[in-house]
Amino acid sequence: MSGVSVTFVGSGDAFGSGGRFQTCLLVDCPSARFLLDCGASSLIALKKQRIAPASISTILITHLHGDHFGGIPFFILDAQFSKRERPLIIAGPPGLRDRVRAAMETLFPKSSETIQRFPIEYLELPPEETSVVGPLRVTPLPVIHFCGDPPYALRVECDGRIIAYSGDTEWTDNLLKTASGADLFICEAYHFEKKVKFHLDYQTLATRQAELGCKRLVLTHMSEDLLGHLAELAVEYAEDGLTISV
User: Terminus of the chain with fewer CB atoms < 10 Å: N or C?
Assistant: First the structure.
């Protein structure tokens, strides 16, 4: 079985805590190179880490907050000006296409009307069903995070590996379904122990960790509060630029 790797292009929260870029996870499989989320700072982060945007075939989005999908307008415009020809798939929750177009019009008026040099396909994924997205099998599971359209956690099967990702959410038992049997579960842990609506704290996750059933757990999307407690964590945590083999 060929190797799969995950690079934390951006591991930060919405506010750049710790100087980190917003959420952007690059997954390299033999059959695909794709992003899990594409926060507003993602194009900068990709270029800083010398990752060619044109090499990315697919962007999977968990939910429609700017620090998770706000980089798409910049990604598309950069692709247009750099004369990308390769098709791009953008997949995520219902409302994705309209929200991307609205964001493009807000940031760069008339840009959503531009005829692209390359094909873009938007896929709005139904919850709790496995969808085929190119060579990927993607299963979205509803979570608890207000963002105007349905938020998801994602299970992605690629070349015999399962990458699971919580997106942003407070605790929900759908995280158990997301993580079960995954080779890697990437999970947000926003605060250390403080309970905040729509987000998960480390202590809550730690009490449920044995139930997750994943082979490896890595924390991401950490606030300044949690970054101040890194020495107390009993699990792995992400840094911008970290690459791990799955």
Answer: N
List Cα–Cα distances, 178 to 143, 189, 205, 211, in angstroms. 10, 16, 14, 11
Residue 184 CA from chain centroid, whole number: 13
Q: What is the edge-to-edge ordering of all strands in the sheet holding 24-29?
A: 120-124, 88-92, 58-60, 32-36, 24-29, 5-10, 243-245
| Average pLDDT score over the chain | 97
Helix (H, G, I), strand (E, B) or coil at 2: coil
pLDDT > 70: percent of the chain: 99
pLDDT tens readout for residues 89-102 = 999 999 999 999 99
Residue that has been written with the tokens 């700017």 in this structure? 66
Ordered by where they begin, the domains of the chain are: 5-231 (3.60.15.10)
67 is catalytic: yes
- pLDDT tens digits for 191-220? 999 999 999 999 999 999 999 999 999 999
Measure the CA–CA gap between 205 and 122, rounded to whole angstroms: 33
Beta bridge partners of 191: 201
Catalytic residue among 13, 28, 67, 240: 67
Say how far apart CA 228 and CA 233 lie, in whole Å.
10
